[in-house]
């Protein structure tokens, strides 16, 4: 009789444990769908500047940062200088050519200011397709090659809480 009681307790315990296990494996909350792309680290913060030489001198000579050479990117209508910060970079932007998007920004913001943030993604094409399916507008139909020689896409600021977001393939 005692063996029968021990067996009943043991079976009840297994039953309770498997019941808990069963509940956990069949949770009522559904997990987020697995995305085909991942958001990565902050690559840089871009700052539009009315005077590239003065801005470069500020970061290099006054603040002691390492800065790159000024590089023209005619396909984007900008000159760029990158400021190394250790954990990320600043990208100084200055207009290049008459149709530069930075010219319009500087007309509205005479002393310059933050222009955009750049976040890395592991698959730019998957990210763009997914975001377009979620009604996030892009500023071009397809990714273009950016300042780092990698594909980039800009997301419309009206769809990103007023922030111009650049995605760059890592």
From TrEMBL:
GO biological process: L-methylmalonyl-CoA metabolic process
GO annotation, cellular component aspect: mitochondrion
Residue stretches making up the VOC domain: 41-170
Catalytic activity: (R)-methylmalonyl-CoA = (S)-methylmalonyl-CoA
EC number: 5.1.99.1
PROSITE patterns listed in its UniProt record: VOC
Keywords: Cobalt, Isomerase, Metal-binding
UniProt KW Transmembrane keyword: no
Database matches in CDD domains: MMCE
Superkingdom classification of source: Eukaryota
Record-level Gene Ontology MF annotations: metal ion binding; methylmalonyl-CoA epimerase activity
Known role: Methylmalonyl-CoA epimerase involved in propionyl-CoA metabolism.
Family: Belongs to the methylmalonyl-CoA epimerase family.
Name under which the protein is recorded: Methylmalonyl-CoA epimerase, mitochondrial
């Amino acid at each position: 009789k005692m063996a029968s009681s021990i067996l009943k307790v043991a079976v009840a315990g297994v039953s309770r444990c498997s019941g808990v296990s069963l509940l956990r494996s069949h949770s009522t909350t559904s997990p987020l769908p697995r995305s085909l792309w991942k958001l990565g680290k902050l690559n840089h913060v871009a700052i539009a500047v009315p005077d590239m030489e003065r801005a470069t001198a500020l970061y290099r000579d006054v603040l002691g940062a390492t800065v790159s050479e000024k590089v023209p990117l005619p396909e984007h209508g900008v000159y760029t200088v990158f400021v190394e910060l250790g954990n990320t970079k600043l990208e100084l932007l200055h207009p290049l050519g008459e149709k530069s998007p930075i010219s319009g920004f500087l007309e509205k913001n005479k002393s310059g200011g933050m222009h955009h943030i750049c976040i890395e993604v592991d698959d730019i094409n998957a990210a763009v397709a997914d975001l377009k399916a979620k009604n996030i507008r892009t500023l071009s139909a397809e990714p273009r090659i950016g300042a780092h020689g990698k594909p980039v896409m800009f997301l419309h600021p009206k769809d990103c809480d007023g922030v111009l977001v650049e995605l760059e393939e890592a």
